[in-house]
Amino acid sequence: MKTSIRTALEYSRFRIVRSMMRWIEIANPRSWKRNRQRSKIVYSLCVEDIETVALDTLSRPLTSTELQSVIDELPEHVRWYDAIDSAINRLAL
């Protein structure tokens, strides 16, 4: 196996070898853990959250059109960068 990898590194200019090297990197369990941690969702909203607020605010459920409008509008109002920055500053990191 070491010889194969060494040979692959020597000839990495070939497309098939570069593809193989990416496969070896992906097959490495350590990179799986690192990638899993980096892509972990730390906060999310679901439709139930929107419906709960709508019931509290409007005292009625949203229609499907209204729900879709709220979903489309949310990214304009969720200030994720500011929230992360504020949390970092609050913790004095």
Give keywords.
93 residues; mainly alpha
Please tell me about this protein's structure.
The longest helix is centred in the last third of the chain and has 14 residues, at 64-77. The protein folds into two domains: 2-38, no CATH class; 47-90, no CATH class. It is built from six helices and no strands. The chain is mostly helical and 93 residues long.
Structure at a glance:
It contains 6 helices and no strands. It has 93 residues and is an all-alpha fold.
Mean pLDDT across the residues is: 77
Span from first to last CA?
A: 44 Å
Specify the overall morphology: extended
Sheet with most strands = none
- Assign the structural class, choosing from mainly alpha, mainly beta, alpha/beta, alpha+beta, or little secondary structure: mainly alpha
What's the number of domains? Answer: 2
Helix content: over 70%
| Strand tally | 0
* Radius of gyration, in angstroms, nearest whole number: 23 Å
Task: Report the total helices.
Answer: 6
Approximate strand percentage: under 5%
Low-confidence stretches: none
What is the string of helix and strand elements? HHHHHH
